[in-house]
Amino acid sequence: MGIAIAHLAALNKCTVALYDINDEVIRRALEGIRVSLAHTVNDTTFTKDDLQLALERIKKRTQLADLDTCDIIIEAAMEDLRVKKDLFKKLDTITHYTTRLVTTTSSLSITAIASATKKPERVAGMRFFEPVLSRDLIEIVTGINTSDETTDALRAAAGKLGKRTIVSRDTPGFVVNRIQSQFFGEALRLLESGAASAAAIDRIVQLQGGFESGPFRQIDTMGVDVHFEESYSLFERMFTDPRYRPHDIERRMSDAGHRGKKTKKGFYNY
Q: What's the mean per-residue pLDDT of the chain?
């Protein structure tokens, strides 16, 4: 997700500081962006010069303190509340008070993450959706203390990235995930019952429902393990409401290493 957001921002003429504690991770990320940009040039009106300029806008950073000049910091760390709170606590101390601190969490509380900072009014969520480059929507999520100025700044930033926005409050699953959980959940229940194959369900959803892609292609793109963890987190935050119960088929696939596109095998082979 972080790589895709960096790619999107650089294409839209933003200067990007791409941070990770591991220099090798950043090197691989930049190579992935380089390859992806090459495809972008072939598929769109972007030229090779545009590609080179986009790459030059991305600066490698391995020290958190080097982010102190950023206007907006978008965190895409693992879905672990302790990890995110620790990161935001550090960012709170090194950044200017006008810097917007943004999390891409799909399941954790924005308010809980913001509680690690002394200025929670500048903390909010931005939910990007896979594939980031082609999905039009960004869901901006406000915590209890998020200021209107922060919300307005993030809506403006999303506009600069060529995206449309909705603003939702900090409730379990926000808006999009609450709806999506039922979409994916019913597809998984159909698969588990043997009603149809993953490919057949995807075809029905596309041909009859008019969707761009089916639920199982989407899960493979997100990562089977990532989707399972998101589902489990939502289930817990909804006080184990059975409507949001995660599905063991995803846990078994994750344990077997069948985690979607990133492992070349999920509901489909890649």
A: 94
